[in-house]
């Protein structure tokens, strides 16, 4: 059976050059390994998503020439997430958490990457004889198993990581009743049979916790992972919508064509020595040679 790899942007802004680089790696990996490309719109954060950004993602990918085989959008998949939430509830591996942001920051250690390592202050609710008052503002947390996860990245090598030490029990639904990134992508990757995950190395730290969660949800064999290098700005920071990175449509409005932009991205990613224009096929072949 043919495998699947996904390109999964969030519609919280327009795509930028970092997204183009990620798309090149996804499509190159698909071509090299004979995989289908699945386009997933990750709009779990309904407070920040905008319909014009969803439309923009599709338009920008089409303008660049990227073609996908299948498509999904997270806001249409609530029944899938409810199904997997029920699995966690049946295993007693999810519980409500009433900790405020202030309490989280004051009562939990912070990792070297600035992430709160939740110490399980609300885990007692799992075994409390008193029923929980669900009208109280709360998040839902996954009981993260305290064990090392061994996994391999095709570019970065082998890792042994314990999510309980990295982040502790992490949220699967926030206080605003929105599914979280960690939970939604795990459910999606199982439901959509994503066999290979190609994404930026800035998300590498999420891998062990996602493997642990997928295992509990019924997928003991994780996907194949490849975390690609990033385009960074002059200060060494990755391009980010939050930092108002120059968008693809700003480039288009400035008069640049698709081949010139693809060549510039490959140059900025140190995949070619000059910013000469490239066809999509040529850009993908350059990325394949780097895999």
Write out key terms for the chains shown.
291 residues; elongated
Secondary structure topology:
Elements: E1 4-7, H1 17-33, E2 36-41, H2 51-64, E3 70-73, H3 78-90, E4 94-97, H4 101-107, E5 139-142, E6 149-153, E7 157-161, H5 163-166, E8 171-173, H6 181-191, E9 196-200, H7 207-217, E10 224-228, H8 248-253, H9 258-268, H10 280-290
Parallel strand pairs: 1-2, 2-3, 9-10
Antiparallel strand pairs: 4-5, 5-8, 6-7
Outline the structure in words:
The relative contact order is 0.18. The two termini are 23 Å apart. This protein has a 3-stranded parallel β-sheet with strand order 1-2-3, covered by helices on one side. A 3-stranded antiparallel β-sheet has the order 4-5-8. It is of the alpha/beta class and 291 residues long. The chain has 10 helices and 10 strands. It has helices at residues 17-33, 51-64, 78-90, 101-107, 163-166, 181-191, 207-217, 248-253, 258-268, 280-290; strands at residues 4-7, 36-41, 70-73, 94-97, 139-142, 149-153, 157-161, 171-173, 196-200, 224-228. Helix 7 (207-217) links the parallel strand 9 and strand 10 (224-228).
């Amino acid at each position: 059976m043919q495998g699947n790899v996904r390109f999964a942007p969030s519609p919280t802004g327009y795509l930028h050059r970092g997204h183009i680089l990620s798309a090149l790696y996804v499509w190159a990996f698909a071509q090299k390994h004979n995989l289908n490309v699945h386009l997933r719109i990750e709009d779990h954060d309904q407070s920040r998503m905008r319909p014009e950004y969803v439309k923009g993602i599709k338009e920008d990918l089409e303008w660049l020439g990227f073609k996908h085989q299948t498509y999904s959008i997270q806001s249409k998949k609530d029944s899938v997430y409810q199904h997997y939430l029920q699995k966690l509830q049946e295993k007693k591996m999810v519980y409500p958490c009433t900790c405020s942001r202030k309490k989280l920051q004051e009562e939990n250690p912070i990792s070297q990457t600035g992430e709160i390592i939740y110490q399980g202050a609300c885990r007692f609710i799992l075994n409390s004889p008193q029923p929980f008052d669900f009208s109280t503002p709360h998040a839902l947390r996954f009981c993260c198993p305290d064990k090392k996860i061994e996994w391999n990245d095709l570019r970065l090598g082998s890792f042994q990581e314990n999510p309980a030490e990295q982040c502790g029990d992490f949220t699967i639904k926030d206080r605003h009743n929105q599914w979280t990134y960690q939970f939604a992508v795990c459910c999606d990757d199982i439901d959509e049979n994503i066999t290979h995950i190609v994404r930026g190395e800035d998300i590498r730290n999420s891998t062990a916790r996602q493997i642990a969660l997928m295992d509990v949800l019924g997928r003991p064999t994780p996907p194949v992972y490849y975390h690609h290098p990033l385009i960074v700005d002059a200060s060494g920071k990755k391009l980010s919508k939050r930092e108002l990175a120059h968008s693809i449509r700003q480039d288009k409005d400035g008069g640049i064509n698709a081949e010139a932009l693809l060549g510039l991205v490959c140059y900025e990613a140190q995949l070619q020595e000059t910013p000469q224009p490239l066809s999509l096929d040529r850009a993908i072949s350059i990325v394949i040679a780097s895999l």
